[in-house]
Amino acid sequence: MIKSTTAATKHTLFEDAQAFVYGTAICAFALMMLKDLGFITGQTAGLGLLISYLLDLPFGWVFFAVNLPFYWFGYKRMGIKFVIKTFVCVGLISIFTEVFPSLISFATLNPTFGAIMIGFMTASGLMAIIRHGGSLGGIGIMALYIQDAFGFKAGYVQLGFDACLFTVAAFVLPLDLVAYSLLGAVVANLVIAINHRRDRYIAT
Fold first, then answer.
1. pTM of the predicted protein model
2. CB of 67 within 8 A of CB of 90?
3. Domain boundaries along the sequence of the chain
4. Using CA atoms, how far apart are residues 140 and 148, in angstroms rounded to an integer?
5. What is the pLDDT of residues 111-152, one digit of tens each?
6. 190 CB burial (10 A radius; 0-12, 13-18, 19+)
7. CA of 61: how far to CAs of 23, 31, 57, 129, 162, in Å?
8. Any transmembrane segments, and where (predicted)?
9. Under 8 Å CB-to-CB from 84, ≥6 apart: which residues?
């Protein structure tokens, strides 16, 4: 087997910035689809959506607030650089999810198709963010730490949290919406688990 001898190179500030804008924009668009369909998702985004549905609050503000307690953990475990990047990504998501609805709406959106595409887009956006040293906060921080420390894939850690979140959602949302939401979350986490390989992508 031929092994690559190419040395890892660090991302530039511009490369990080475009990845964060791209990743958060894709995830924010997926969140627009989620809200339009009445779905939820996993991790702190799902928790934020559930709270925003129940209390009729703007998701962007709820998502930003829900992530605040996790920054200290991120600082202690992953360092200040990671926390700053995560803070920027969470802030961008919060802004984009408030702005995007004024720019686009959906006349027709099939729930099965929507759930699958939401999973694909969320995974794509998250991988761009993760590969440039950031995250969308919350459970993502813990999942990345567990992956780095113990080798257990971040996607599977997130899947476990999602299972708990969806169990709670089943008691407060229509079961068909929870089922579609679960489909999207499973698709996203499986794509991340299969494609996010630090042994294949090591530039930071």
1. 0.79
2. yes
3. 13-195
4. 12
5. 999 999 999 999 899 888 888 877 777 777 777 677 777 877
6. middle
7. 19, 14, 8, 20, 21
8. 20-41, 47-70, 82-106, 112-130, 177-194
9. none
